[in-house]
Amino acid sequence: MLSLKAQCEALGVNRTSLYYERRTKDETFLEEEIVKIYVARPFYGYRRVHNDLKNNNVITGLKKVRNIRKKLNLKTLYPKPNTSVPNKEHEKYPYLLKNVEITRVNQLWETDITYLKLKIGFAFLSVIIDVLSRKTLSYNISNTMDVELCARPLREAIEKYGTPEILNSDQGSQLTSLEYTNISKENGIRISMNSRGRALDNVFIERFFRSLKYEDIYLKKYETLSEAKEGIEKYFNFYNSERGHQSLNYKTPDEVYYGGESSLRDATA
User: What pairs with residue 112 in β-bridges?
Assistant: First the structure.
């Protein structure tokens, strides 16, 4: 078997370009792994992130983790005075949806956070959907993952569409903070939270995120945050008003959400 040097000479390829390509690929993989940990545990400092990577068999240096977090502007979230308490002390709420049949709009909303890879860095997206109609009610995109990332779309959805009976989410630190949960309490919304490790409890919004990424993000390959905001707004409009859903008998979310009882019967028949 030819050595790498011999293979490069035979093909007329500069060996340093292969090393550069490998380093770039490894760097991208490491960035994505660090962002995944940040989305799940934004209260972790770089040392804990490094330890999580090691536990997942991703071997890298502590300094490398710190530099990547700085490059991507991933800042550890600390509780603000008089507005929250440390994450481990946040109140957790029971899962209220076991054996519950969803039969009407605004009976159940779901919310969650995902990250979007841009050409230069990452962005974070928080979305609220109505489960029966699959309609996306509100969203927020930011390059920082703080409580306002989630609080703003919840306030906007309530202002525009009223209140749901139940709001379901995972147990992320933003979604368990007093600043966030008080919005639901003040509006008489029952709070439901997934059990730890039960991603399928929020299956409808996870399906939406998958559709968004495969039908828009991965195809458009947005470079900047402003470009992503503009493009994703167009996708949300398409998703709500043009994209038929098989589970809704190929009606759109808007048709079901605004269509009343007859639309519901047609969509679920």
Answer: 127
